[in-house]
């Protein structure tokens, strides 16, 4: 009798959970429709603790709401019903344009939505236009940028990917390029449709035509012949790193600005978004620095602001890259000729020095080295720091970094994990520029050691697009401020 009764109870429990989940799925479907409408018609982006929700799958929307529960110790999950109600209220304000609204922050802080939206001065608010984007180079970063740009809901505003430039190649090259975009050994299949337009030598990606241009040098290209003008060129090749080289892009008809996805030399500004992007101004050539510089600089800034950094050393355990050899062969650089998939390879990194360009107060205070390891993606930075003022304990330091990661200012860039099971592959595809691993934090007197995971492809690419958005003159009123 007991077994029958227990079975009935479990069966009812299963039905209750399933019914609850089905209800949440329907709410998520309704939510996605509203979000896409807001994005398309009003250029309003809605986020949940910095995570974009528009054009997201139902399962991901639900997972993001569950994930929100672990941001604060003992917190309850954000109810999707609450998010839906808030988004409905936002959608009722049809006069609001070009805003980024974080419903997660509004909900957990019990904010008055009407009062928060008053910060958006619609009478003086300029609407964002469209900016043509050209990806010069279609390697790892170029393809990740393409995925990020074209995975969002279609819109006539913001960054518009119009062309990809690659070196001249043999017949069949276009099909190869499309295949590389569709299938990725690290990040999986592209979530969307990609087809070839042979007649116009281009790709159709999620319904949007992207021209493929073959050229050996920027001087060969007239972009206006392809209907492209006042474009932002994102150079992913790494061939040119100074003003003379990158300036070639500006001589191409139809180009207005250039963004380099590598550290630059000379007088070109190396910019880490969120740290020194306020220095960009009207610069026509800007560098987005390196993946490691972007991963470590935000946390170094907040630690320096709070505790002060006397000096330190940065060691990066970095996944191997395409410039290394698969098997032993000649390489102009020391050690990089040895097999990348069989060896740990000690090499140099300019990231520690580059921090000083983004954070002048740390100039000359940090040394750095790198070890390339046989993994294809996700790297780990170890910050070995002597602090001016020490926190009370490692737990206190972790608590500070957790609060930083939850703050409205840093939540999109800095993340935090205290899982005892976290390993590198857990962070593949993570859009945060760096993830603090709290379990590894060490504090001895004033000496702190902080470990930061980062997807050196996706995390960095999100930073590139933030900087590209700024260079294009695209801005959003932040709610909450």
From TrEMBL:
Residues 131-291 form the Glyceraldehyde 3-phosphate dehydrogenase NAD(P) binding domain. Coiled coil: none annotated. GO terms for biological process: glucose metabolic process. Keywords: Oxidoreductase. SUPFAM superfamilies: Glyceraldehyde-3-phosphate dehydrogenase-like, C-terminal domain, NAD(P)-binding Rossmann-fold domains. CDD domains: GAPDH_I_C, GAPDH_I_N. The keyword Metal-binding does not apply. SMART domains: Gp_dh_N. It holds the Pfam family Gp_dh_C. GO terms for molecular function: NAD binding; NADP binding; oxidoreductase activity, acting on the aldehyde or oxo group of donors, NAD or NADP as acceptor. The keyword Oxidoreductase applies. Its EC number is 1.2.1.-. Belongs to the glyceraldehyde-3-phosphate dehydrogenase family. PANTHER family: GLYCERALDEHYDE 3-PHOSPHATE DEHYDROGENASE NAD(P) BINDING DOMAIN-CONTAINING PROTEIN, GLYCERALDEHYDE-3-PHOSPHATE DEHYDROGENASE. This is Glyceraldehyde-3-phosphate dehydrogenase. It comes from Psychrobacter urativorans.
